[in-house]
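[job 4417] fold queue: 2 targets
>>> target A
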Amino acid sequence: MSAPTPYHPPVKRSVEIAGHKTSVSLEPLFWDALRQAAQSEGLPINALVAQIDAQRIASPKPPGLASAIRLWLAARWLANDGQYGADQ
């Protein structure tokens, strides 16, 4: 039996940032990575997304929230020498 494919359309989920609900569409691979990152940071997903959102807003040319989450996860992965899920 082969592993499930990483190619899946985005899934929309609701998150709460600073008391406001918003929806974010990410591929399941990124939702899984975000859950794992939140767990290793000792934070709820909403709190981690709020941190990513604050960093994104402070950037000179802020991307959309979903892109910011993907970029944050990729930067984290690269900072950990490509070790998926490694603690920083």
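>>> target B
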Amino acid sequence: MKTVIRIISILIIALSVTFCASKQEFQSEFPQEIIAAYYQTNKEDGKTYFFIDLKEQLNSKLQLEEVHFNDKTAVFESISKNTFRAQFNNKSKNTDLILDGNASKEYGNKAPSVKKSKFVLKSNEAVVQYSKKNQKYYFKIINVNERQVR
């Protein structure tokens, strides 16, 4: 009886440690000063661009990797030494669906792929994923505003 209790308690401890390790924790501060974080939606090409402007050039030990915003993920690219941009494609791919009263004629239709976001965010929040010495970190940005395209 004691061995059964020990086995169950070891399993419970192992599971609780496993779930704690898989949770991504946000950093309280970003390693460099962020001047602005904003997004722009271009209605012509149907894309949303997310920008981060830093006060100084990005430290060589840091690398901006991804941004999670509005249930989408995009990779950062450098525009200048202080400005980084990520591009989201808002238009869905035009896939032809066959709709017919006879279900056998709809055989070639593909089910839509639905990706669940890693984070639960409000519409004005974003999470920046960056790495420092091959270690991944997450920083949550609050009050991301939209700026008009010039």
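[job 4417] complete. Note on B: Helices lie at 2-22.
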